[in-house]
Design a protein that fits this description.
With 396 residues, the chain is of the alpha/beta class. 43% of the residues lie in helices and 20% in strands. Strands 6-7-8-9-11-10 form a 6-stranded mixed β-sheet. A 5-stranded parallel β-sheet has the order 2-1-3-4-5, sandwiched between helices. Strands 15-14-13-12-16 form a 5-stranded antiparallel β-sheet, covered by helices on one side. The structure holds manganese (II) ion (MN).
C-alpha cells in the first residue's frame, strides 16, 4: 500500500493526481497545510501498517519527525520525501530525502515536476504528452515563471483549482490526463474562467482607487485592504504605481498582512521579518501584530487614496521631450521636463526646483513620493502650456 502526504495547494495536489494515476486504488492521499503535516507524519508512523510505502511531497518535516523517518527507513521502512524548497535542503543528507530547487538546466523545480520525474524513473508511471503538459503548467505556476512567459494557462489552472473543491479538481484532471492526448480546459471551464478573469479585473480596478501611500522604515508602501486575489493585486497595483517600493495588503478579518513587490532591489521577506513573519523576496506575510496594526492601519487611516495617472492622453504623456504635467491634492502643479539629453528638472507652480534628476523615472519618483501627484489630463496640460507661452511673451 502506498500513502502520499502532500501540500494542499496546486503543486501539492498535482503530486496527488500523479500518485492516483500511478497507483490507482493502491494509494491513500492526504493533503495538509504547512502546520498540519508533522502531526500527520507522526500519526502515520505510529498507526499505519509497517509495509507502508510513504511519500511526502511539497512540504518538509520538523527535527523530531526527521529522526523518526530516519529510524523508520533504517528499520527497512520505505519512505521518500520530495521537495523543492530551499529550507528543506538539509534533508538531502538522508537516503530518503530528495530536494532539488533548480535542475541541471537551471530551471526552477516544483514538487509535481520532481515527483513526476521520480515516478517515471522508477517505472511507476508511463509518461504521456498530456501529463507532461499538465506538470509543466503546475511548475510554471508554482515558480511564477508563467508570468515572465505570459503563460496564462498556468494561472488559469490555479484559478480553476480554487473555484472547485480539491476532490472535484482531482477527478476532472485525472480523467482528462487518462483519456486526452493533450491537456486543455473544456468549454464549461473556459466559460467560468473567463467570468473569473473579468471579476478579478473589476476587483483590481476598484482596489487601485483605494490605495494610500506612506513611508515606513525608509521604504514607500502602498497600503490596500483586500481579502482575496493577493498575488494578482500586488502585481497589478505594483505595476500601476512603480514609484512604490512594495504593496502591503491588509486582511482585517484574517488579521494578516501580505507584502508584494515587483522590484528586484526590494526584499519583502525582510519587511515581514520586522513583524515576525517571513516568505520570499517578492511575496511575504505576517500576522497583524499591535506594531504592524499601528504602522499600516492607524498611520494610514487618515490618508487620501492615490489618484491614477490620466491614461488616454495624446500630449501629456510620460518621458515626453515637451515635458509632463502633474498635479497634487493641493492643486499644485509639477512640470517635469528634460533640460538636456541626460537631465530632467521640475517646475513647481512655474518656479524652478533646485534638484536635477538623471532620468525621467527618478524625477517622477520624487514627485509621486513627496506629493502623491498624478499625471493630469490633456486639456489641463494644453492650458498650462498656453499660459506658459503668454507669461514668457509678457516678460520679453
Ligand atoms: Mn510547491
Amino acid at each position: 500500500m502506498y500513502k502520499l502526504l502532500s501540500h494542499n495547494d496546486l503543486d501539492g495536489v498535482g503530486c496527488g493526481i500523479l500518485a492516483k494515476i500511478a497507483f490507482d486504488k493502491n494509494v491513500k492521499v492526504k493533503y495538509n497545510s504547512v502546520s498540519s503535516l508533522d502531526r500527520e507524519v507522526e500519526w502515520s508512523l505510529e498507526h499505519d501498517d509497517k509495509n507502508l510505502n510513504l511519500f511526502i511531497t511539497d512540504l518538509s518535516v520538523n527535527e523530531a519527525n526527521e529522526k523518526k523517518l530516519e529510524a523508520f527507513y533504517q528499520a527497512k521502512g520505505r519512505v521518500k520525501l520530495i521537495d523543492h524548497h530551499k529550507t528543506a535542503l538539509h534533508l538531502n543528507n538522508y537516503d530518503w530525502g530528495h530536494i532539488v530547487v533548480e535542475n541541471e538546466e537551471g530551471k526552477l523545480t516544483s514538487a509535481t515536476s520532481l515527483y513526476y520525474e521520480f515516478l517515471v524513473a522508477e517505472k511507476l508511471l508511463a509518461p504521456t504528452d498530456a501529463i507532461t503538459e499538465f506538470v509543466e503548467l503546475v511548475r510554471q505556476y508554482d515558480t511564477w515563471e508563467w508570468e515572465k512567459n505570459e503563460n496564462f494557462q498556468a494561472q488559469r489552472l490555479n484559478a480553476l483549482f480554487y473555484l472547485i473543491t480539491i476532490e472535484e479538481f482531482e477527478e476532472k484532471i485525472i480523467n482528462r490526463l487518462k483519456i486526452s492526448e493533450h491537456f486543455s480546459f473544456d468549454e464549461f471551464e473556459t466559460k467560468i474562467l473567463d467570468m473569473e478573469d473579468n471579476k478579478i479585473e473589476r476587483y483590481i480596478r476598484r482596489k487601485k482607487r483605494e490605495i494610500v501611500q506612506l513611508e515606513i522604515s525608509g521604504l514607500f508602501a502602498g497600503v490596500v485592504y483586500a481579502e482575496s486575489y493577493h498575488s494578482e493585486l500586488g502585481n497589478e497595483i505594483g505595476k500601476a504605481y512603480p514609484h512604490l517600493d512594495y504593496i502591503a495588503i491588509i486582511n482585517m478579518g484574517g488579521k494578516r498582512l501580505g507584502f508584494r513587490t515587483i522590484h528586484d532591489n526590494i526584499d519583502v521577506s525582510e519587511v515581514a521579518g520586522q513583524f515576525g513573519g517571513g516568505g520570499h523576496a517578492k511575496a511575504s506575510g505576517c500576522s497583524l501584530s499591535d506594531e504592524a496594526y499601528k504602522q499600516y492601519v492607524v498611520d494610514s487611516f487618515h490618508l487620501e487614496p492615490l489618484r491614477e495617472d490620466a491614461h488616454r492622453n495624446r500630449y501629456n504623456v510620460k518621458q515626453s521631450s515637451f515635458g509632463s504635467l502633474y498635479k497634487d491634492r493641493k492643486e499644485i502643479l509639477y512640470f517635469l521636463h528634460p533640460i538636456n539629453d541626460r537631465e530632467w528638472a521640475i517646475e513647481r507652480n512655474q518656479a524652478k526646483m533646485e534638484d536635477i534628476y538623471a532620468s525621467f523615472i527618478e524625477g517622477e519618483k520624487y514627485i509621486k513620493r513627496n506629493y502623491a501627484a498624478w499625471l493630469v489630463r490633456d486639456d489641463y496640460f494644453v492650458n498650462y502650456i498656453m499660459d506658459d507661452i503668454k507669461i514668457r511673451k509678457h516678460n520679453n
